[in-house]
Design brief:
By secondary structure, the protein is α/β, with parallel strands linked by helices. 31% of the residues lie in helices and 13% in strands. GO terms for molecular function: methylated-DNA-[protein]-cysteine S-methyltransferase activity.
C-alpha cells in the first residue's frame, strides 16, 4: 500500500508519498516528474507518522510552521541553520543513481556542487577513469525527494542555474534562502557575470 499527503510550503504546494514507513517522494506540485513514484492506487493519509516527521522537517527548513504567512515572489524566508534530522527515505533505482543521490545529501545547506564535481566523485568511488556529467544530470533530474535530497544545490560548471525540475526560479530562491553565494551564478538565457566568464575561459 502506498500513501500520499500534502504540504503548503512558502514556494507553493507540495505532495509527499510513502510506502507506509519511508518517504518515497516529495515534489512541488506541477514540477517535472511530479509524483513519478506515486502508485495510482495510493491512498490519501494525512496522519501517517512519516508524513508528520516530514512536515516537521519542512517546517524547520523553511523556518516556521506550514500555513503561516507566505512570502511574495520578491521575498524569501531564511531556513533554519540548525541540523535537521531527515525522515527515513526509500529511493529506488540503479546503484549509479543511488550513489548520485547519496552525494547530493552530503552537500551542506548554503553550498553548491557542479555536475562535473559529482561525476568526479562517482568516478573515484567506482574506480572509473571518467563519468559523464550528463549521466549525473540525468540522475539528478529524476530525484524523487526534493529538498531533503537537495538537487537544487547542483549547478553548471560555468555557474548556470540550470536543470531543476520545478523551475530555475525555485532553484534560485531556495539557494538565496539558504544564504548561498550567487555572485558568480546566472539564470539560463542570461550572460554570465564577468567573474564567471573569466574563470570559464573564452
Amino acid at each position: 500500500m502506498h500513501y500520499y499527503s500534502h504540504y503548503h510550503s512558502p514556494l507553493g504546494p507540495m505532495t509527499m508519498a510513502s510506502d507506509g514507513k519511508h518517504l518515497t517522494g516529495l515534489w512541488f506540485d506541477g514540477q517535472k516528474h511530479d509524483r513519478a513514484t506515486l502508485d495510482e492506487q495510493a491512498v490519501q493519509e494525512e496522519d501517517l507518522p512519516i508524513f508528520q516527521e516530514t512536515r516537521q522537517w519542512l517546517d524547520a527548513y523553511f523556518g516556521g510552521p506550514a500555513g503561516g504567512p507566505q512570502p511574495s515572489p520578491q521575498q524569501s524566508s531564511r531556513p533554519s541553520t540548525a541540523p535537521l534530522t531527515a525522515p527515513a527515505l526509500a529511493v529506488d533505482g540503479s546503484p549509479f543513481r543511488r550513489m548520485v543521490l547519496e552525494i547530493l545529501r552530503s552537500i551542506p545547506s548554503g553550498q553548491t556542487m557542479t555536475y562535473a564535481q559529482i561525476a568526479a566523485q562517482v568516478a573515484q568511488r567506482t574506480g572509473r577513469e571518467r563519468v559523464a556529467a550528463q549521466a549525473v544530470g540525468g540522475a539528478v533530474g529524476r530525484n524523487p525527494i526534493s529538498l531533503i535530497i537537495p538537487c537544487h544545490r547542483v549547478v553548471g560548471s560555468s555557474g548556470n542555474l540550470t536543470g531543476y525540475a520545478s523551475g530555475v526560479d525555485h532553484k534560485r530562491r531556495l539557494l538565496e534562502m539558504e544564504g548561498a553565494d550567487l555572485s558568480s551564478m546566472f539564470m539560463p538565457g542570461q550572460p554570465p557575470p564577468r567573474r564567471a566568464r573569466a574563470e570559464s575561459g573564452p
